[in-house]
């Protein structure tokens, strides 16, 4: 059965149906979870479908199961280059090149890494088979909202297994994952140039994975973590004393600013007083708002904007209906009809195939 799924996955990949290929490889891996070849092939499909952190995780698994599989190093290297993790990519590609001297792509990609590293640092790295840094991730399965013909929209969300938060100092970021009574042996944390990889694998429970691409680069060898009785505390050493406006990288994040003291709140960018040209913040803000308005969204982003537009332009009764239905249904129902929901409690409603559960803390 696994071989049939693998064959179908390869055919889907050849036909450029990369997401279907990922799904078929996932089914095959469920039947043969320790297959290095399957994880390596899914890494390739993930690269093509744009899931780069998933590709890194698959390549790491393939290397774990078969450290001589040069294709896994090649695919991890490609994914890391696309993630702009050039040091990690170069170290990985050098290992792969030593396993497959005939494969010319390693030399080409290593040269690309050298050029990118030189652009960033002004110094070419020395050749060495550095210790490979592993990252683990399982792509989150998003639960899609379901629209109904009536004026109610049902939305279901999946609650993360563990809650996390972060704070920062000029030289480090501290990430806290609130997990009570977890044995230290069940916690694995790896650090990349700009990837944090956390997995908590407790016997009898689903494995928890948390692998964000970080807001900025870190120094992996200076990072550390501690497993305490109520939490996992992770300390990330910043490569530069920049203020992180979020934990995770986003193309929409503002340009980070250097900081010299404890960070409390994000502030508007400031510039040296000697700068001759002043920034017209009102004009800049108007331009940003114009771009946001004209931006074409899809998926969850489009749905959220749709709700925001309804709320912004609605009368008071409609707003009251939206607030009341959303709160009383624990976020699963959004109604705009005050006459319908005003005199009764709105019960939660889950889509087909799901059920409502109360979470205990």
TrEMBL record:
Record flagged with keyword rRNA-binding: no
GO MF annotations, alphabetized: protein-folding chaperone binding
Signal peptide: none
SUPFAM superfamilies assigned to the protein according to its UniProt record, in alphabetical order: HSP20-like chaperones (SSF49764), TPR-like (SSF48452)
InterPro entries: CS_dom, HSP20-like_chaperone, SGS_dom, Sgt1-like, TPR-like_helical_dom_sf, TPR_rpt
Protein keywords: Repeat, TPR repeat
Biological process (GO), any one: response to stress
CS domain boundaries: 159-248
Keyword Transport annotated: no
SGS domain span: 270-361
Family that this chain belongs to: Belongs to the SGT1 family.
PANTHER family found in the cross-reference section: PROTEIN SGT1 HOMOLOG
Protein name: Protein SGT1 homolog
Organism listed in the record: Pyrus ussuriensis x Pyrus communis
